[in-house]
Amino acid sequence: CFSNRRGSIFSRDNFMLSLNKYCWDITAASNDKWEQCTKVNKTHTGGVIATTEGNSNIKGCLHECAYRDDCLAVTYERTTGRCHLRRSGSIGGASNGADSVDMDCVAQH
Question: What is the predicted pLDDT for the residue at 50?
Answer without folding.
Answer: 95
